[in-house]
Amino acid sequence: MSRYQVLPFACLVWPCPLDLARLTHAKKRKQVLGKSDSDKHNGHGSILSRHVLMRFRTPSPHLGAGISISLAFLQTMHVSPEEPKFRLTSTVEGLQAIVPPKRSWFVIPFLTIWLCGWAFGEFQVIGQLLNPSDKAPIGFLSLWLTGWTLGGIFALGTVLWQVAGRELITVNSSFLVHRVEALGFGRTRIYAADKIKALRATDYASGDFQNQQAMVPPFFGPGIGPVAFDYGAKTIRLAPSIDEAEAKVLVRELARGLPSTASGI
């Protein structure tokens, strides 16, 4: 390959490889032209100098092809439609949707390592409280241990939820059963089907705070997520780990198992 040809991947390094090649070519040609003029004046012109001039007048035919192929590769990307993350199954209780949690592969190892340090501090303070010295601040250590224990429980629950957690949404003509569990432990809420109104997929605003909430088990409160329905004077939200498009599919499937009034206002 000629030293003045540009490889297709050169555009990944330089902002504009075509301009760079042109500048280099013009500079080299100018140097050769200057030398050729000097040779003419000195009477030393030769076939070799004319050959060199022809070499710089003719750009490499591979330059444009290489850049075109590389730019086409960077600009063209085929995107395949994604399948929903949830699964549908039929049970003796009715149609059931199994929704996996929202996982963060940064949070899981970080909290796992943090829990090792948490356990060390936990046992150290417990040992000091069981065998207190005269100068040990018992009141402060007790208060610190309470907060430290709650923080460890929260971190452990978050790891277990992201690794082995799931949401189970079961519907039939009488009830909507929402269960949040991890390793078989969890909480179940049962809603009367005839009291459910306006089952819908909402344009759920997933900001930074909502994204963090979606990573912890939704054991308390009305929940968050794009699947919503009105239950009395309260709006209940489900499935925080899915987006709006998945929520529309899930709502359409859940409506099949509920009374027709569940989709009305």
Topology record:
Elements: H1 17-42, H2 47-57, H3 62-75, E1 87-91, E2 94-99, H4 107-130, H5 138-164, E3 165-171, E4 175-182, E5 185-192, E6 196-201, H6 208-213, E7 227-231, E8 234-238, H7 244-257
Antiparallel strand pairs: 1-2, 2-3, 3-4, 4-5, 6-7, 7-8
In words, what does this structure look like?
Strand 7 (227-231) and strand 8 (234-238) form a beta hairpin. The relative contact order is 0.10. The chain folds into 3 domains: 8-75; 87-104 and 164-263; 107-162. The termini are far apart. The strands form 2 sheets. The protein has a 5-stranded antiparallel beta sheet with strand order 1-2-3-4-5. The protein is flat. It has helices spanning 17-42, 47-57, 62-75, 107-130, 138-164, 208-213, 244-257; strands at 87-91, 94-99, 165-171, 175-182, 185-192, 196-201, 227-231, 234-238. It is 46% helix and 19% strand.
